[in-house]
Amino acid sequence: MASHEHAPGFEPGHGYTQEDWDDVSDNPELTAEDFAKSRPLAEAMPELVAAMERRRGPQRAPTKDLVSLRLDKDVLATLRASGSGWQGRANEMLRKGLGLDA
Q1: Residue 74 DSSP SS3
Q2: What is the pLDDT of residue 12?
Q3: Top-confidence residue, 23 or 56
Q4: At what angle do helices 73-81 and 86-97 cross, to 10 degrees?
């Protein structure tokens, strides 16, 4: 499709841009024949399914307790903004603040 033309049917406000719509607009709808030829994901891509199923097992000897703790919104927002692993870092800060560093 020429860059100045746009595919029909685009409606803004659905989480994608006009350019996204144009990029995929020429994909045909799947037919009953297409569905009949399809295979389960586990059969078509077993390594992907295996990677998705890998999970951490239960702890042998749990060393932490699950608690409910009320925090100020700005404190929680700052911790979460620090990215993945923020709960562990919060635990480290509490240990240090309580003088429990080993």
Answers
A1: helix
A2: 84
A3: 23
A4: 120
